[in-house]
Amino acid sequence: MSGSTRTSADLDPRRRKILFRAWHRGMREMDLIMGRFADEAIAGFSEAELDEFERLIEVPDRDLLGWITGEIAVPENYDTELFRRLKAFHRHDKPIHA
After folding, report:
1. pLDDT one-digit tens code per residue, 45-83
2. 28-43: average pLDDT
3. Cα distance between residue 66 and residue 41, in whole Å
């Protein structure tokens, strides 16, 4: 069970694969953060944004979660506009499962 709220039927194969990977990271908290963001934004990603999102998917869950929550400083090479959009999308004022 992924938790995805969108269908992938209207997506090209690359976007389908990225959406699947965003929802199947390993750590449920990161599935919810990355998956929900991908549900909302993936259809509108440019090719460069798809590249960047794939790069973020490769970051270990613990590191990425620490960057998003502010517990760990974001390395300069990952502090991109897309990462800042992902971080802003995750609201820190309510539980992740809400």
Report:
1. 999 999 999 999 999 999 999 999 999 999 999 999 999
2. 92
3. 22
The residue count of the chain comes to 98
Among 35, 97, 95, 94, which residue's Cα sits nearest to residue 61? 35
DSSP secondary structure letters along the chain = -----S-STTS-HHHHHHHHHHH-SSSHHHHHHHHHHHHHHGGG--HHHHHHHHHHHTS-HHHHHHHHHTSSPPPGGG--HHHHHHHHHS-TTS-TT-
CA distance 61 to 91: 18
Say how far apart CA 86 and CA 38 lie, in whole Å. Answer: 9
Cβ 15 vs Cβ 50: under 8 Å? yes
